[in-house]
Amino acid sequence: MITPKEFARALGLEVILPEQQRSVNIQEADLCRPGLQFAGYFDVFANARPQVIGKTEMAYLNNLPADVRSARLQRYFSYGIPCIVIARGMDCPDALLEQAKLYNVPVYRTQEETSAFTGKAITYLNEAMAPRTTQHGVLVDVFGVGVLITGESGVGKSECALELIKRGHLLVADDVVDIA
């Protein structure tokens, strides 16, 4: 899990509305573009993901009548979303900011185009949320393939790796190998 604050810091996002006392963390390595939710469709909604509002979603939201926009945003925020990122440096509409304050949802902004930001954000989330383990052994690059040599203490893992290194292969890690 990643906090919205860690997500924003890692991607260099501008804080519009800071994270308050919340417990909703990012648990999925993907994003949601909430255009269908702004249109009123909530049957399938990836609300556990960071929400990215691009030019299309913003234009649609801004063209809704005030009463409809208010009702849609109220329902949208009731799902416990972790955070919102507004792309392309666009301004945050007052109605969205009001609901974000009410539901304690942090709002961030990026100057990047929506597609460029989503690619970067998904890459970051996949790396940050990848399963990790630590293994005792020696990791060697043999012809571009990682070879992890494991075994009981004193059986010759390091000697085996040294022989491979003498033959031109590369040592990657010795003794403790962190795997993600």
Largest sheet: 4 strands, mixed
Helix proportion: 25-40%
Could you report the average pLDDT, rounded to the nearest whole number? Answer: 95
| Classification by helices and strands | alpha/beta
The low-pLDDT segments are none
Q: Sum up the overall morphology in one term.
A: elongated
Strand order of the largest sheet: 1-4-3-2
Strand content: 15-25%
Q: How far is it from the N-terminal to the C-terminal residue, by CA?
A: 15 Å
The helix-strand sequence is HEHEHHEHEHEEHE
Radius of gyration: 23 Å
Notes on the structure:
The strands form 2 sheets. A 4-stranded mixed β-sheet has the order 1-4-3-2. Helices cover 37% and strands 21% of the residues. It contains 7 helices and 7 strands; from the N terminus they run H-E-H-E-H-H-E-H-E-H-E-E-H-E. Helix 4 runs parallel beside helix 5. The two termini are 15 Å apart. It is of the alpha/beta class and 180 residues long. The longest helix has 15 residues. The model has no long low-confidence stretch (mean pLDDT 95). The chain is elongated, with a radius of gyration of 23 Å. Strand 3, helix 5 and strand 4 form a beta-alpha-beta unit.
